[in-house]
Amino acid sequence: MTLKRLAAISLLSGVLTAYSTPSEATPITWDFSSGSSTPSTTSGSGYGNLYTFTVGGITVTATAWGLTGNSLTTFQTAQVARTAYGLGSCNTGDGTCTGNVQRVDNVGQLDFILFQFSAPVDLKQIVIDPGGTSFDRDVSYWVGNMTGSVLGTGLAGLSGLGFGSRQNVFNSSGSSALTLSLTGDSVTSLLFGTQAALTTTTTENDRFFIRSLTDDAVPTPEPSTLLLLGSGLVGVAVFGRRLRNRG
Question: What is the pTM of this model?
Answer without folding.
Answer: 0.79
